[in-house]
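Lab notebook, bench 4. Still working through the backlog of constructs that have no structural model yet. Next entry is a single chain of 121 residues. Request: give me the structure tokens for it.
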Amino acid sequence: MIARTRLRRDGSSAAAARRFVADVLINRGYPHASVDQAVLATSEVVTDAVVHGDSDIDLSVVADGGMARVEIQDGRTSIAGAWDGEHPEHQWRRRILDTCSQGWGVETLDAGLRVWFELRP
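Model written out:
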């Protein structure tokens, strides 16, 4: 099952993303602890896209009862900045993804930058 939404690049996007991811995972039967971790990681990645991105944000959740994958994509064409820097804010975001997920990554695509993470129920 894939659920998708598009968010505007504004201050309300992180809250909308948190609600969307929580609703999808709860409806798929994920335990609250996993949902909480996904919500925290989503909030950080979407906040990064709002602060550093330059376009609307595409959010997708693939959840089939096994591993869930959350993907956030914006129009950036480089990971320079929030995902490769040594600034404490950048380190904090990476640490949250390390802690809240079983794996994560950053990909540059023709259509923009995609940050993804996976978690188990």
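Notes after review: Strands lie at 2-7, 57-62, 68-74, 103-109, 112-119. The CA atoms of residues 7 and 13 lie 6 Å apart. Flag for follow-up if needed.
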